[in-house]
# Entry
Amino acid sequence: MTNVILFIIIQAWFINGVHISFKGYKQNDILHGNIFYLMFAHKWSGEEWWQKPLYSCVKCMASLWGALTFWPFVLYVYGFHWVELPIFVADVFALAFLNFFFYKLT
# Structure
């Protein structure tokens, strides 16, 4: 159980790091921001429906980034078993809460 809790905390830190790396703003017609904002995000500003799970909403990012971090690790370490599907669903819900909690701390 400790391993699962530690894994969810590491996932939440990673997802918040992705969210922070896409933050940016425009001041006096000059773009300011972190690395991925300057490279990609300001060019994709009109498509909100796919921005949320990709980089703009920490609660929404739990679904996509949770799957991208959960399944490779679990399949490599444990292999596939049907009992992992409800664990994945619980992981996504825990990530949605924990992501927002860490986001509010910063």
